[in-house]
Write a structure and sequence with these properties.
Helices cover 35% and strands 30% of the residues. The protein contains 4 helices and 5 strands, in the order βααβαβββα. It has a 5-stranded mixed β-sheet with strand order 1-5-4-3-2. The longest helix has 15 residues. The chain starts with a strand and ends with a helix.
């Protein structure tokens, strides 16, 4: 299923962290590409089963679904999909982390 979406950062702090990355940083370039892909297709990533959603995400943001977008060099971008007025999809970026941080977050 291909469904376009608006892409937003879940918080101002996360957006500031993204904007503070150097323009030539591979991570910033990778996240920019991910944002473009998610604008074209909200379901671009890999759906994370509900039972595996970290409780912190549910407590902090009240999310009901979680998606993982694999970035280069073992980095992961976590996002959730929601609807605006039940019509337009929104992909809300939650965080990005390296492989070690991802393993800790998901208790692997």
């Amino acid at each position: 299923m291909i469904k376009a979406s608006k892409v937003v950062f879940i918080s101002d702090d996360l957006e500031k962290s993204f904007n503070s990355l150097p323009e030539d940083d591979f991570l910033k370039k990778s996240i920019k590409q991910a944002i473009q892909n998610l604008r074209e297709n909200a379901f671009y990533g890999i759906h994370v089963p509900k039972r595996l959603i970290p409780k912190e995400y549910i407590r902090k943001w009240g999310i009901k679904n979680l998606w993982k977008y694999d970035l280069p060099k073992g980095w992961r971008l976590m996002y959730t999909i929601t609807a605006d007025n039940e019509v337009d999809l929104i992909s809300a970026l939650l965080e990005w982390c390296n492989h070690k941080g991802y393993e800790r977050r998901f208790k692997y």
